[in-house]
Amino acid sequence: MLDTKNVWANACTLLRNEMAEVTYKTWIESALRSLDIVEDKFYLEAVTDYYHQFVSSRYEPLITDVVSKVVGRNISVIILAPEQAEDFRKGKLNENKNTASNLNPKYTFNTFVVGSGNRFAHAASLAVADAPADAYNPLFLYGGVGLGKTHLMHAIGHYVTNEKPGTRLVYCTSEQFTTELVSAIQSNRNAQFRDKYRGVDVLLIDDIQFIAGRDSTQEEFFHTFNALHNAGKQIVITSDRPPKEIAKLEERLRSRFEWGLIADIQPPDMDTRVAILRQKAKDTNMSIGDDVLEAIALRVDNNIRELEGTLTRLSAYAALNTTFDITMELAEEALKDIFKERESYAITCEDILEAVGSYYSLSAEELCGSRRSRSIAVPRQVAMYLCRELTDASLPGIGQVLGGRDHSTVLHGYRRIEEMMENTPTLRAAVDDISKKLSRT
Questions:
Q1: Ramachandran region, residue 240 (left: φ > 0; alpha: ψ -120 to 50; beta: rest)
Q2: Which residues of 94-124 are buried (b: 16+ CB within 10 A; e: fewer)?
Q3: Which has the higher per-residue pLDDT, 165 or 173?
Q4: Burial bucket for residue 13 (CB in 10 Å: 0-12, 13-18, 19+)
Q5: What pLDDT, on the 0 to 100 scale, is given for residue 96?
Q6: Using CA atoms, how far apart are residues 420 and 436, in angstroms rounded to an integer?
Q7: In 3D, which of 186, 187, 180 has the Cα closest to residue 205?
Q8: Can you tell me the distance from the alpha carbon of 410 to that of 140, in angstroms, rounded to the nearest whole number?
Q9: What angle do CA 23, 25, 31 make, to 5 degrees?
């Protein structure tokens, strides 16, 4: 019977010789602990979720090769996150979950904040998770960095493994797929590689754009795709761009990616950004007011990862200052680089449109549309008023932003709000509130 600790100790010696010392100490010695050997599976525990995610994607193929050499036969290395390792010790980790051990436990449908920019992709992902290969196959999700593609992919994985016991599922990045393929070719383990990827019920491939220009990887993935699709198995793919825009991607792959459903994810709007921050604050037990969350959301609009990272910085700063009540003053001090970046920022008509829409819970399309009901007409005129007051835009320029209206319509709207504010305190308060929020940008 193999001794788990001895196998791992010998594997670590070989890994140390294969890697730079700082790399070994950071990603092997400090990151992993041996758990057990069960048949042809060698279980390791990552000490944090971050280590689990990083080591699984970067070093699992190398660790697999080394452990197989030590044992003297082909071994599958399975790296578990801390929560999964605890389930393993209690005997609660079933074979189904083992196949998806590199899923981030925090990326579920329950923790995904749905907004206008991701609603379609979220609905498509949920449909695929609920009925793999029956809804959309393949499902191709694309969007910029940090917008939630990987979160949705992991959410599909968690849903399937929890709700459909016995489903064989594999998640990997295209880089990991390539690395494992090269390793399999070099060590004459092609059959084992193909069994892993072609013998599943659900295959989740992240960042597929990186296989472009790699002939051998594209060839292998083409055959993997065909084998799974022909067998009625689900394929989910993510990319930073749609298939037609991936340069050096073989046409036969491009056409197959377009067989199913293509769903894009857009940057979150103001309301969604605030909701994401509120969810993050709740999850981490932060005491923080909506005014601070809105100030951050106004300044950080690129992607969700940056948004959550900003809140993490603020939380760390508060902890270092031994305070649990995060005020606007504290936020301005902790995030001075972000606030300073926008000090000289010129407010645009588009900023005003977004702020007015957020305040009145209206979309930009509604504000710029043709509907004339009071619930939309007044906010639209508020936007005209603020554009005239806070920007250097001309009346025709303001009209163009607001759906192609002419300058006389804009002037009428401006004067109407000016008159209404004299007799309507609630409207004046609303305009002042929106102006204050914009002044913080």
A1: alpha
A2: eebbbbbbbbbeebbbebbbbbebbeebbeb
A3: 173
A4: exposed
A5: 44
A6: 19
A7: 180
A8: 43
A9: 100
Determine the residue type at 164.
K
166 residue type, one letter: G
Say which DSSP state 441 is in: -
Q: Of 10-14, 61-65, 272-276, where does the model show the most confidence? A: 10-14
- Report, as an integer, the average pLDDT of 47-56: 84
Q: Provide the pLDDT for residue 101.
A: 60
Where is pLDDT greater, at 2 or 127? 127
For 250-268, the pLDDT digits (tens) are 999 999 999 999 999 988 8
Query: In the structure encoding, which two tokens stand for residue 6, read together?
Result: 């001895």
Architecture of the domain spanning 1-93: 2-Layer Sandwich (3.30)
The correct CATH number of 270-341 out of 1.10.540.10, 3.40.50.2000, 1.10.820.10, 1.10.8.60 is: 1.10.8.60
d(CA 154, CA 439): 39
Instruction: pLDDT band for 340, please (50, 70, 90 cuts).
Output: low
- Half-sphere exposure at residue 238, Cβ-oriented, CA atoms within 13 angstroms: 24
303 and 144 in contact (C-beta within 8 Å)? Answer: yes
Rounded to whole angstroms, how far apart are CA atoms 267 and 161? Answer: 29
Judged by DSSP in three states, 168 sits in coil
Using a cut of 0.85, tell me whether the model's pTM lies above it.
Answer: no
Q: What is the pLDDT of residues 391-414, one digit of tens each?
A: 878 888 899 999 999 999 999 999
> Measuring CA to CA, which residue among 102, 96, 50, 51 is closest to residue 79?
102
Is the pLDDT at 215 greater than 60? The verdict is yes
Return the CATH fold of 349-439: Chromosomal Replication Initiator Protein Dnaa; Chain: A; (1.10.1750)
Instruction: Report d(CA 284, CA 307) in Å as an integer.
Output: 15
